[in-house]
Amino acid sequence: MGKKKKEKTLMDVIREVDEKDRQEEERKAEQRRQREVEQKKAYEEQLKKDRIELIKLKEGVISDEDIPREEKVEKHYTIWQKIGNIFYHDKAYILFGLCFAALVVFIVYSIVSADRPDMTILYIDNDPNMEYLCDDAANVLEPYCEDANQDGEVMVKMFYVPEELDDDNAANMQLNQSYRTKLVAEFQAGEVIMVIGTERVYKEMGIYGNGLLQDMTELYPDDENATSFGYKITGTTLAQAMGYEELREDLYISFRTPQKLIGTSIKEMEENYDIALRTFDNYIKENRAD
């Protein structure tokens, strides 16, 4: 029997997406270059043609009257005819412009009115109860976070994105696909720094042991709960504070290190990284488990 084909990790998928994005950008750049070459060629041919006609005109081979000109017939329209004519010929552009303006207004309104968390956390282990307890966990950490976006209030959000559900029905298969898509999107961006998961999940995702997670022993060298990839959840009072004593004991609070990503600048990720670490440091100073 042949060897079982190795499944792709989350980081493998992200690298493939990044490579496809890069190839797509190169393809578009090549298309732009080809268009520019064709436009330049057409311009040069027209310029050459104009020069030939000018030379002929100077040498008397042709007269000025021989050069073809378009006859323009001036027409007079009423103001309503002009408006109707503009709408008739440009209605597609007008409708597109109106739709675009409406879309811009909607997007701006959504951005302005939407809640903007100062820190976002991902819970990426399989625990159905956490789907309903993420707000409780976020509320525990919220008092230790800063008003990073300076909107006058502090908000911490945690999202439950399970590693994988059992593929025993079509609904779970679709959910798995949506969860995986969300994970890929989040790990391509730099907004989410703090993640909560197990060592096994990190290894299967491909983010373990390759510098993608902060070595917590560097930050807390004398703390037995600090590991090379996270901080043991049992070293905190998070379970008791959120009222969920059944919280898995093999979970770790981990932090993504700033990386060069397609979806964000490294400066932005570094800022989010600093906020997440300061929040955790403020929290752990008061909430180490006895």
SSE order and pairing:
Elements: H1 10-59, H2 79-113, E1 119-123, H3 130-141, E2 156-160, H4 170-188, E3 194-198, H5 199-205, H6 216-219, E4 231-232, H7 238-241, E5 251-255, H8 266-286
Parallel strand pairs: 1-2, 1-3
Antiparallel strand pairs: 3-5, 4-5
Helix pairs in contact: 1-4
Number of E strands? 5
Query: What is the general shape?
Result: elongated
Beta fraction: 5-15%
In round numbers, the mean pLDDT is 78
Radius of gyration: 31 Å
Question: How far apart are the first and last residues' alpha carbons, in Å?
Answer: 52 Å
Low-pLDDT parts are: 109-113
Multimeric status of the protein: single chain
How are strands sequenced across the largest beta sheet? Answer: 2-1-3-5-4
Class derived from helix and strand content: alpha/beta
* Total of DSSP H or I helical runs spanning 4+ residues: 8
SSE succession: HHEHEHEHHEHEH
Q: What this model shows, in words?
A:
Helix 3 links the parallel strand 1 (119-123) and strand 2. The protein has helices at residues 10-59, 79-113, 130-141, 170-188, 199-205, 216-219, 238-241, 266-286, and strands at residues 119-123, 156-160, 194-198, 231-232, 251-255. 52% of the residues lie in helices and 8% in strands. The protein is of the alpha/beta class and 290 residues long. It has a five-stranded mixed sheet.
